[in-house]
Amino acid sequence: MKNPYAVLGVAKDATDEQIKGAYRELARKYHPDNYEEQPMKDLAQEKMNEINQAYDQIIEERKGTRSNQSANGGYSEIARLIGEGQYEQAQLLLDGVPINQRTAHWYFLSGNVQYNRGWYDEAYTNYSTAYRMDPNNIEYRNALERMNRRHNGAGYRTREYGGDTSCSACDICQAMICADCCCECMGGDLISCC
What we know:
mainly alpha, single chain, elongated, 9 helices, Serine Threonine Protein Phosphatase 5, Tetratricopeptide repeat, 3 domains, Helix Hairpins
């Protein structure tokens, strides 16, 4: 068979939409119904068959490439979404990967989504998993080291508390009230207004 891309008149790197558009245009042009009772009807039917085969072949090739990419951890679309700051969409695609097919790169990308959202505990867990699964990957190691530096420094924000893990004004007030209650139980009074 001829090169299917040449049959449709598109480049090999054409987008799916460009391929569909070229197919529709050729199908309209060569559809046998356009040549009823004309000597070119048989030629149009041949051309239409060739167009259909070319389109089917391209679609099957691309499906195969996508499933191979998924099986091999090809998460380029998710990485693109993360790069564009579209964390919700990236997370949806990540969540769609079955648990038994999650590679080290899946955990790394998931860590990137969570890190960028400020969910550092979850990011740390995912970076750790990615590094454990592939300890020779420099990118995974660097991400984990970045989290370790952050953790050993000023603490890091968690999704559950929405702030860093150091003491806040609320923590100090709660501790003072607790201390006052203990003092009062023993006959003293730490805070006189309470």
